[in-house]
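Input/output pair, single chain:
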Amino acid sequence: MAARNSLYKLAQSQRRCFSAKQFPSSSYSSFSCNKLQREETDFGTQDDAVPTSGLGRPLSDVLKDLSKKVPEPLIRVLKETDGFSAKYIPWHILNRILNLHAPEWSGEVRSITYSSDGKAVSVVYRITLYGTDAEIFREATGTASVSDTSYGDPVQKAEAMAFRRACARLGLGLHLYHEDIE
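Output:
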């Protein structure tokens, strides 16, 4: 329960408040906005404890938790100049969700490769989840243009993209790849 509460504290820190009525039961369970606001101001609350929802659990339970729909307030929309829009979850939010539901996860950059013409960089990222009965890893790639330096350097962008895609391969945020944007 503390892990779910912390996820909603995270959403609250994004200055948005939501209730159970806004999200189906398949998403992360709801939490009272008033309680969130009160707990944010209290130092040393129970949520300061180390999350343990993923410790000592079978891998299937961890994957089931990660496959739940991420609440809308945690999702961002990237709008390109050509009018194209894409929903995404920032890497730091995904990192926090992994910490809450799969505390034993690990991640690593497997490779950083520049294209032969030096105009693009690709990163391969691996996420490994550990359960009491098994471990599983997924890898994904991300590529960024070297000339595009908005929002950080190209290697950081490629790594964040690869991390998000590896999370999706584990079910975390995968629902965004199946939604249409108007």
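Strands lie at 76-79, 85-88, 106-114, 120-130, 135-145. Confidence is low (pLDDT under 50) at residues 10-46.
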